[in-house]
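User: Hey, my collaborator sent me this sequence without any context and asked if I could get a structure. I don't really work with proteins. Can you help?
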Amino acid sequence: MGDGSTTILVANPDEAVREVVARVVETVGLDAVRLAPDADLADAVVHSGATGAVLDLGPDNLAALEALRARTEPGATGARVVVIGTGPANGRLAWQAGADGFLVRPFHARELQAALTEALARPDADRAAHRDAQAAALV
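Assistant: No problem. I've predicted the 3D structure and written it out in structure-token form, which is a compact way to encode the shape of the chain:
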């Protein structure tokens, strides 16, 4: 487990996948909170003080990411979100919805660790340009 200073919410409808992803998050010294499938991501981020989230791209989670980005509370606007999907079309949707990182399944634990580390380290001023560049590269 991490030291409590950085909390990452893990959202995935499959309990086993959620647990595996949470354990990978914990290997880089971050605290992982496993969200129930019916949890509201935006509310969870705002009310938990989480620094970020890892979520599996699905219709509900894409809407949850968009809802999070529509919030104006500092916790919502500052939260870094790494999205897991199945290919370039998912990547484009994720980047356009406000993702800070995107991984294509299957991926290695090191890739998730790197995506989280990079997303958390990226300055606020660089986030939009990074998203735009990543989305443009998928066209």
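In plain terms: The mean pLDDT is 90. You can pass these tokens on to your collaborator as they are.
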